[in-house]
Amino acid sequence: MISVSREVTRPFATTVLLNRLAFWNREDLAIWLEPGMDEVSLALTADAWSRTYKSAATTFTGAPASTMSYAVVLQDLTNGFAHWVLWNIPASVTSLPANVDKATMPATPAGSQQCSLGTGDGYFGPGACGNVYEFVVYALSVPTFSPTQATNQTMVRSQLQALPSIVGMASMRARSFAPECP
């Protein structure tokens, strides 16, 4: 099993507070909690990052020994399409920085590639009122993955999910709740 954690830092907490003070038009994410989860850190992370369109810092642990690379997908389970896919993350990389470069081949993690919904490349976060979103981290037993349509995030996700080289995965689901939701 792979576990995913989010880091809450002083600059991160400052952003959360400034967004609240500015009456930022943002979404709230409702996350189902399991026993033993740190709900305060999780709530702060989900709230602060849900509408910034900046990826959060993420750490991977507990991957199988056969892992040679990782892929990360943010998908809208309500509509059935992917918002963002980042792949070819080397197995030696155990964390992603906050706000991964918005480029097809970001500088960090070196060798990775990404595509997203909307214009440009890079992280594209949750948006629709009441939809269920899921982050999935895949551990792969191949060093690189070469999708046939590397600019179409939904096709990349479909090809990724069909790989026989998936040796582990972890996910986190949440429902978005904007103030205007019924």
CATH superfamily: PEBP-like
Structural class: alpha+beta
Total beta strand runs: 9
What is the level-2 CATH architecture name? Alpha-Beta Complex
Question: Considering DSSP H and I runs of 4 or more, what fraction of the residues is helical?
Answer: 10-25%
CATH topology: Phosphatidylethanolamine-binding Protein
Order of helices and strands: EHEHEEEEEEHE
How many individual helices? Answer: 3
Distance between the termini: 37 Å
Which descriptor suits the 3D outline? Answer: globular
β-sheet strand percentage: 25-35%
Number of domain modules: 1
Q: Which stretches of 5+ consecutive residues score pLDDT under 50?
A: 18-33
**What strand line-up does the widest sheet have?**
2-9-8-4-5-7
Largest sheet: 6 strands, antiparallel
Task: Give an account of the 3D structure.
With 182 residues, the protein is of the alpha+beta class. It has a single domain, classed as Phosphatidylethanolamine-binding Protein, CATH 3.90.280.10. Helices cover 18% and strands 31% of the residues. Helix 1 (10-21) crosses helix 2 (39-49). The longest helix has 12 residues, at 10-21. It starts with a strand and ends in a 5-residue tail after the last strand. Residues 18-33 have low confidence and may be disordered.
Précis, in short:
The protein has 182 residues and is α+β, with helices and mostly antiparallel strands. The chain has 3 helices and 9 strands; from the N terminus they run βαβαββββββαβ. The chain has helices spanning 10-21, 39-49, 153-161; strands spanning 3-6, 28-30, 58-61, 69-76, 81-90, 95-96, 113-116, 132-140, 166-177.
